[in-house]
Structures are given as structure tokens and as C-alpha cells.
Amino acid sequence: AKSAGRNRWMFYTPEMAEQMVQRREMENSLREAIKQQQFRLVYQPRYGLNSSRIIAVEALIRWEHPELGLLMPDQFISLAEETGLIVPLSEWVLNTACRDTQQSLEGLSVSVNISAVEFQSWGIVDRVREALRQSQLDPARLEIEITENATLWNPESSLELMLALKKLGVKLLMDDFGTGYSSLSYLRNFPFDGIKLDKSFISGMPESDSANTIVENIIGLGKAFSLSITAEGVETEGQLQKLITMDCDETQGYLIGKPLSLTALKEQMNALDAA
Ligand code: C2E
Ligand code: CA
Ligand code: CA
Ligand code: CA
């Protein structure tokens, strides 16, 4: 019997059995996908407001499933986390992103998303070190995006892991800032270089006075802690202009560019340079 506390699911229903089978199948196909390299990375530009140019990209994973077609991370990352397959997956992501950046994205930094579950063991430090070694990428050009729940599970050991990563020379960004529980003063206890302000804050801008005030305050406090501030999900010119007046450092979002294949991104940047 499952979750008898609420008396709703006293016994496994046929639907639940089917869900378990589907999950098992998905897990197997994820395992197979890693072996057969069915993944690819797309890169979304990050735009510096001081320099008015693309200064970095964020690597985002896609799964080209042979039967189901293109799958987005929301459809498989949590399964990868639960099954431990996130480890070989993130190894592939780190190696590919570092190699692509070193070979094809001259002058740009790259950020990679690392799951909170990976912050429970030292393996992540080895994977980052190995990706840097294999690619020969300057560590200062690699940024690791971590969501705040990574630090909440076990503050002491995640602090040690972060310090070890910093020692390798990479930068640390707190992703989706504002969606969890931590405050900026809590952030001060961890060696973050910057925060990425969640898109839910940006979507009300510039019309909503409260959205504007909140974002302006977070930017101000972040600056007081010497953090670089990236606004995520910037979709309109109005939002961009407002963020410039607030002295935000960087924006990312559909206005500047959607996530693109490496080839498409390079074409777009060449076209911009030519213009
Ligand atoms: P995230 O790290 O917050 O990434 C930003 C997400 O917002 C991306 O979705 C991106 O395509 C989308 N986005 C960017 N600009 C805009 C915009 O202007 N408007 C809107 N509405 N959306 C925008 P995506 O690629 O589906 O990724 C979803 C999440 O999956 C990511 O959220 C990240 O948490 C996770 N993820 C992606 N790649 C990886 C990976 O390689 N490893 C791990 N562990 N997680 C990953
Ligand atoms: Ca991210
Ligand atoms: Ca984010
Ligand atoms: Ca997110």
C-alpha cells in the first residue's frame, strides 16, 4: 500500500503500475541514449549591458529521442537525477561545452547547469577538472550554474565543494535566484560570483511598479555583495531599457537570442559583426 495516510491510494492501481513500467522504460532509454550519444547542446547568448555585446553563452541540453523526437530538459533531467544517470550526463555536458567553447567561441565564456544532487559528492570537482584538462579551456571562461537548493541540503559540504571548484579557477553563479528560500545575506556565506535573477521577476517589468522595485532592490543588494547580476527571461525592449537604468550587468532571453545550435549561433554572431 502506498501513502495510506490520506486514504486515497490504498493499493497500487493499474494506472500506477503502468506509470512504473513507463518510468522503467524511460530509464532504460535514457541509459541507452547516453551510450549512443543522442544528446546535443544548444547555446543561448548572454548579453553584457556595459559592453553592449554577447559576452557568454549558456549551454542547454536537448535529447533527440529516436521515437519521441526532441525532448526538453524538463522531460528527463529529474529522472536522470533520481537514477544517478545525471553523473555521466553532466560529464558529457561539461566535456562538450568546454570543447565547443575552446574550439569555436573565441573570447566568450560558457555556463553549464549542474544539478543540486551533484553537490552531494566530490565527483563533480573531478568532472570539472577533467573537462578543463581535456579541452584546454581557460578555467576563467567556465561558469557553473547552481540552483540555491544545492546549498541548502548540506551547507558545510556544499561550501567545501564550491571552494574546491573556485580553486580550479571557474566561476559560480546562483541560478533561478528568488525562487527558493535563500536571501542575499545567506548568499554571502558562499563563494558565488554572480546571480541569475529568475524570469518570474522580469516578466512583470516594466509595467508593474512592484516588479520594478523588487528587481531594483535585488540588483542593489547584489552589487553591495560584489555579485554580477544577470536578468533571465528578458523578452521585450522595455524590459531591457529598464534593466539598463537599474545598472544590471547582463541579460539573457528571447529578445537577445533563443538557444541555438553551435553552428546557428556562430552564423548569427557573424551577421551581427558584419552589420
Ligand atoms: P534554466 O537554467 O533556468 O535555463 C533557462 C531556461 O529558460 C531554458 O529552458 C531557456 O530555453 C529558457 N528561456 C531562455 N530565455 C527565455 C525567455 O526569454 N523566455 C522564456 N519563457 N524562456 C526562456 P530549457 O532549455 O528548457 O531548460 C530548462 C531547465 O533545464 C534549465 O533552466 C535548467 O535548469 C535545466 N537544464 C538545461 N540544461 C541542463 C543540463 O545540461 N544539465 C542540467 N542539470 N540541467 C539542465
Ligand atoms: Ca541555468
Ligand atoms: Ca535560470
Ligand atoms: Ca529554471
UniProtKB/TrEMBL annotation:
It comes from Pseudenterobacter timonensis. Residues 23-273 form the EAL domain. The chain holds residues 592 to 866 of 877 of the full protein. This is EAL domain-containing protein. It comes from the Bacteria.
